[in-house]
Specification:
- This is Phosphoglycerate dehydrogenase.
- It holds the Pfam family 2-Hacid_dh_C.
- It comes from Fibrivirga algicola.
- The radius of gyration is 21 Å and the shape is globular.
- α1 runs parallel beside α12, α5 packs across α7 and α5 runs antiparallel to α12.
- It has a seven-stranded parallel beta sheet with strand order 8-7-6-9-10-11-12, with helices on both faces. A five-stranded parallel beta sheet has the order 2-1-3-4-5.
- Helix content is 39%, strand content 16%.
- By secondary structure, the chain is of the alpha/beta class.
- α11 links the parallel β11 and β12.
């Protein structure tokens, strides 16, 4: 294919599969995965496209340095590092690859819940230590549980599909959508989820509405003791509220793939105390922001992204 597409600056590390796809589609690009912010600001001026992952914050300063920028591609789902208002004001289109990792996220959510419900991690540790405790590791089943999903985009829908296969009743609320209920989840109000859910799973973007949303007041507003799953963004959940809920029994367990501060070496003393409680609790499953991070999703994200770039350049 001849090269007839706008040039793209790739400012984050990408899976090698991306380059063959871009070549086949006829894009020209400059791959600078280790570029720092200062060099990005001086390098971006001639480019019409920018591809990023989670390292690069695209704000007014970046837009000012990029007079030719027409589109931004996010190799992933979240757009919280991109100033969307500024992009809209400047006529810069933004696409993301939420479809690319939705199945990975859904499988991870189910995996965390199963591990928590059947005491998988604790039982494994104990057996390795020569402890054979069947009764102390008696589990509970997903079958028959009511799951509330906040957010019903790519990840929410994929999660609902899998949980419905376990015999769960799935409820969903998404303030940004309408008529989104389907055979896997019943569209309800946020209040109904808070009244009926045994499990609450978060699939919302990080914005001013969702930041620190799950706090002490929210936990107190849940009608029943519940299990919490967060595979969205860490800043949606106040971890001190999770600890308080675990101590009071209002939160029965938590599956956390994301944290308020994921740079563990920079935790404040207060954050460290909270994290220490969570990491020592058998009621908590922790993973390092890997819910969408599979070998398959890494390639699939590129496929989705290039497909969207082609659509924009037609």
């Amino acid at each position: 294919m001849s090269t007839n597409q706008a040039s793209i600056l790739i400012a984050d590390e990408m899976h090698p599969s991306l380059f063959a796809m871009l070549d086949e589609a006829g894009f020209t690009y400059d791959y600078q995965p280790t570029i720092d912010r200062q060099h990005l600001l001086t390098a971006i001026a001639p480019f019409e496209g920018l591809l990023v992952r989670s390292k690069t914050r695209v704000d007014t300063e970046v837009f000012d340095a990029a007079p030719k920028l027409r589109y931004i591609g996010r190799a992933g789902a979240g757009l919280d590092l991109i100033d969307m208002d500024e992009a809209t004001a400047r006529g810069v289109r933004v696409v993301h690859a939420g479809e690319g990792n939705r199945d990975a996220v859904a499988e991870h959510v189910v995996g965390m819940l199963l591990a928590l419900f059947i005491n998988l991690l604790r039982a494994d540790r104990q057996v390795r230590q020569g402890i054979w405790d069947r009764e102390g590791n008696r589990g509970i089943e997903l079958l028959g549980k009511t799951v509330g999903l906040f957010g019903y985009g790519n990840n929410g829908r994929a999660t609902a599909r899998r949980l419905s296969g376990f015999g769960c009743r799935v409820l969903t609320y998404d303030k940004y959508r309408s008529n989104y209920g389907d055979q896997y989840a019943e569209q309800v109000t946020a209040e109904q989820i808070m009244a009926e859910a045994d499990i609450l799973s978060l699939h919302v973007p990080l914005n001013d509405d969702s930041r620190r949303w799950i706090n002490d007041d929210f936990v107190a507003g849940m009608a029943k003791p519940f299990f919490l799953v967060n595979a969205s963004r860490g800043e949606v959940v106040v971890l001190d509220a999770v600890v308080a809920g675990l101590k009071s029994g209002k939160i029965l367990g938590a599956c956390l793939d994301v944290l308020e501060n994921e740079k563990l070496k920079t935790l404040t003393p207060a954050q460290q105390s909270t994290f220490d409680y969570l990491r020592q609790s058998d009621q908590v499953i922790l993973t390092p922001h890997i819910a969408g991070w599979t070998h398959e999703s890494y390639v699939r994200i590129n496929e989705v992204l290039v497909r969207q770039l082609l659509t924009m350049n037609k």
